[in-house]
């Protein structure tokens, strides 16, 4: 017989809910607002906030009667960055993806209007590409970047592209922001992003976004291949195969339990 699941710890769950809620706000908020938004009694909310303050995870602003994140929460964020979970969790998944499709794969993240490549796993007998680790490219020109930009709300996209995107490499530039929006709309409808010859002559890429537990684009998984290796009509099938690995990385990043 299998082991029974561990008992729930309601107090810990409530404390984590309060801490997550504070982290999602634009600034410090009243305890009453936290209790109302989370649907917990005010007395319990005050006890949780007091404990978070005592341990440095929250700060109380007495003049404003509000609570915000504390330095201990910041240290958690810094520790997350130091441990580089995307790279650590992504490396074996990237290797498995390359074994599965037989082509070079990349893991990239969005940084403003650029995409930065964190990992590359080159397939056997494939050439070195421009999308090496640490390389930064305009997001709107790459499949990796487009898959991530397509996940952003329109207001965020406008904020990023105050001016029209400028093509630094391609002979087929994005002319304006409306053109970019149309391109991203196609990405949304297709469920994946693709580019052909816009980053490296003779090569195409297909990419799928990885969302975090809040639905925000955390990273993108892409496969790059010589034009003749994967015909364009097969790109949706390739994207479906990439999606399986992207979903697994997203699950690991969110801390979800392993699939049975």
From TrEMBL:
| GO BP | negative regulation of DNA-templated transcription
The record's section on Pfam families has: HTH_IclR, IclR_C
Molecular function terms from GO = DNA binding; DNA-binding transcription factor activity
Looking at the record, the residues that make up the HTH iclR-type domain are 9-71
Keyword Transcription assigned to the entry: answer is yes
SUPFAM superfamilies linked: GAF domain-like, Winged helix' DNA-binding domain
The record's section on PROSITE patterns has: HTH_ICLR (PS51077), ICLR_ED (PS51078)
Per the record, the domain of life is Bacteria
> Which PANTHER family does the UniProt entry name for this protein?
HELIX-TURN-HELIX TRANSCRIPTIONAL REGULATOR, ICLR FAMILY, HTH-TYPE TRANSCRIPTIONAL REPRESSOR ALLR
Full protein name: Acetate operon repressor
Source organism: Microbacterium laevaniformans
């Amino acid at each position: 017989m299998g082991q029974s699941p561990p008992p729930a710890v309601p107090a810990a769950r409530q404390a984590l809910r309060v801490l997550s809620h504070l982290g999602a706000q634009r600034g410090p908020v009243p305890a009453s607002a936290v209790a109302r938004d989370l649907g917990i009694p005010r007395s319990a909310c005050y006890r949780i906030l007091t404990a978070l303050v005592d341990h440095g995870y929250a700060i109380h602003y007495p003049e404003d009667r509000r609570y915000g994140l504390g330095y201990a929460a910041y240290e958690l964020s810094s520790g997350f960055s130091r441990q580089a979970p995307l790279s650590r969790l992504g490396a074996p998944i990237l290797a498995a993806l390359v074994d599965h499709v037989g082509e070079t794969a990349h893991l990239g993240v969005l940084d403003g209007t650029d995409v930065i490549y964190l990992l590359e796993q080159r397939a056997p007998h494939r050439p070195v590409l421009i999308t090496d680790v640490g390389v930064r490219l305009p997001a709107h020109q790459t499949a990796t970047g487009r898959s991530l930009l397509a996940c952003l709300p329109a207001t965020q996209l406008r904020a990023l592209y105050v001016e029209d995107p400028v093509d630094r490499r391609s002979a087929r530039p994005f002319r304006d922001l409306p053109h970019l929006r149309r391109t991203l709309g196609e990405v949304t409808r297709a469920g994946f992003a693709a580019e052909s010859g816009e980053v490296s002559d003779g090569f195409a890429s297909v990419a799928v976004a990885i969302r975090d537990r809040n639905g925000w684009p955390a990273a993108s998984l892409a496969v790059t291949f010589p034009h003749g290796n994967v015909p364009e009509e097969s790109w949706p099938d390739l994207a479906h195969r990439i999606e399986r690995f992207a979903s697994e990385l997203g699950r690991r990043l969110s801390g979800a339990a392993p699939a049975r």
